[in-house]
Design a protein that fits this description.
The complex is a heterodimer of chains A (about 120) and B (about 110). With about 120 residues, chain A is an all-beta fold. Chain A is built from no helices and eleven strands. Chain A is about 0% helix and about 50% strand. Chain A is globular and about 40 Å long. Classes of the chains: A mainly beta (about 120), B mainly beta (about 110).
Chain lengths: ~120, ~110
Amino acid sequence: KAGVTQTPRYLIKTRGQQVTLSCSPISGHRSVSWYQQTPGQGLQFLFEYFSETQRNKGNFPGRFSGRQFSNSRSEMNVSTLELGDSALYLCASSPGQGRGTDTQYFGPGTRLTVL
Amino acid sequence: DAKTTQPTSMDCAEGRAANLPCNHSTISGNEYVYWYRQIHSQGPQYIIHGLKNNETNEMASLIITEDRKSSTLILPHATLRDTAVYYCIAWGGNFGNEKLTFGTGTRLTIIP
């Protein structure tokens, strides 16, 4: 079974621009979570989508948004980029049934650099 | 989700067993112990998880104490490719709560 895929793998943007990152979950998985990883803050939860609905949200400003499509693929968008948004953005998918065996599997990440 | 505490770093000789401890003294009865690892700049890789019984898979073994306040991840024959940051996470897995809280993890270095 194919793993979680994320595109693009690397991205360079300038301050003020916006960016859209894409995530394709493992086939059959309905939950997609997004995380941001920076050297200073570590891995932080952004939000989670299940059946096209945002179920959980972390403590990030409204510039960070996401959506999920009917095929469970998800996108996240960051508007008005700031230098501090430079990070590795990770997507994780799981069946989303909420049981203890509902393991989240991570993609390779998108490395975003804001200049 | 319960807070976990791990040593900042550990070394292990290649070919030996690597034993990574994790303290989760406030874990609740429905929280599972999950282990992930992250090799530099890659996405975290799932290793193993358990509730109260010891677990083993092709990658590792997980030993959870009877009171569930701590656990140990065992990599039986460490190789250089096991050098990574290892994260121990206590997660309730409740429906609608997919958020994983990562701590700082243990940086494991395998020494040739």
